[in-house]
Amino acid sequence: MPHTPAPRSLVIVPTYDEAENVHEIVGRVLDVVPAAHVLVVDDGSPDGTGDIVAAMAAEDDRVHLLRRAGKLGLGTAYVAGFRWGLERQFDLLIEMDADGSHPADRLPAMIEAVAGADPAADVLLAIGSRWVPGGSVVDWPKHRELLSRGGNAYARVMLGLDVHDITAGFRVYRAEAIARMDLDSVDSKGYCFQVDMTLRVHDLGGTIVEVPIQFRDRVRGVSKMSQAIVVEAMLRTTQWGLQRRFGRRRSS
Known about the structure:
Blueprint: E1 9-15, H1 22-32, E2 37-42, H2 49-59, E3 63-67, H3 74-87, E4 92-95, H4 107-115, E5 123-129, E6 136-138, H5 142-159, E7 171-174, H6 175-179, H7 192-204, E8 207-212, E9 214-216, H8 227-245
Parallel strand pairs: 1-2, 1-4, 2-3, 5-8, 6-9
Antiparallel strand pairs: 4-7, 5-7
């Protein structure tokens, strides 16, 4: 049988003030998936995150840095990373947080779920999921777990998607799916970006799979989650759900 080359994978890591975490996270990714490349999209971190990554990139040609002028939001960081990866013809575009909450050792299983799938299944996205059998969270207070489960259940019902962790930010996309999207129309800046992207993959007609992960809270640094981000996600999800129910489905 002819040898099938491994897919070219790009792990995109948005950062803002992650100097305490970024070196370790990039190292974990490259230890687990040595053939992958890592693109850190840094939003002008005043703590020197970008300089740390620049030094790593000077030593390892698998590490790349995309500097941005200021804090422009999670969604725009990923879109910038997607465009960078598409221009360089990567096969898989991967989302991963810089804070250590996403287990790098699950990357091979997530990559295999997309790249190793039966072509007839048309798997376009694998989500590292907390809320499927085998998935879990560590050291979360009960109210936070209920908020996350409830928010995901609400989005699943409103949008008609059979996905249990729509808000998850640990993802492997087939690059061809991203290339088919209208990225100029993506204006979700906070965590509702993940809901938006899930909906776009669904509307392309592709299969979405969920791979169980154990999610851990950050140990170092400050969380970027805020009430405004939660409100944005709820309002956007309601808007998209109502539009779909009344027959105004947008183009991808």
